[in-house]
Amino acid sequence: MEFPYAASYCEENVCQAVLHCLREHQSPEEELSVVFISSLTRAVPLWCQRSSTRSDGLVIWDYHVILVRSSAGSSAVLDLDTTVDNTSISNNSKEGYRKAKFLAFNEYAEATFQPSTALQPEYARLFRVIPAADFVACFASDRSHMMILAPTNSDDDSAATERYPTKYLVPVPSWDCIIGSRAGAAGVSMNLPIYIDMTTAPGESTDLADGLAYGEVLDETAFLDRFRFYA
User: Active-site positions?
Assistant: First the structure.
């Protein structure tokens, strides 16, 4: 399958993938879940990542986002930045798109999380799981987390803003900023930090005053138990 893709915007890539799956490939028996992976210290080790310069593909992300598809007795993962099963996946099929496929959950999890590898407590991975339909309706990003202000010697911040316009750390996606229907109705234009925040107790849902759905946070054992297929 071919999905819209922009480097460093994994949350938006997954949102686009959800829309693609709902439009083209979703069957009534399948359940799609968007999964944010982070930690209390915003540092999580993931292996088999394309951006790594190491042979094992290890990267310490502040957060990462994947899509899990579940049906009777099995689960699969779509990660547009993985090198697992790289033989059948090309990098960018054309500008702004990436070819990728869903991988068996067990295979992906073993290669990417390496559960048998002992981690320091600060790297303990936590997983925010959100039903995909809720995510596309409730997610909003103005991309301000990717903006920087060019250095200036001026003490006048307002003047600096005018003379040194805001720039992006990396090029923005080709599509417009994403504001889900429920987020827009609630007047929310940026809630990405809420999805990344893992301070909600594992197993508890996040229920905020804006009435939007943010899923639940699971520790690694609970996450693997929920989606792992036991033959």
Answer: 10, 64, 79
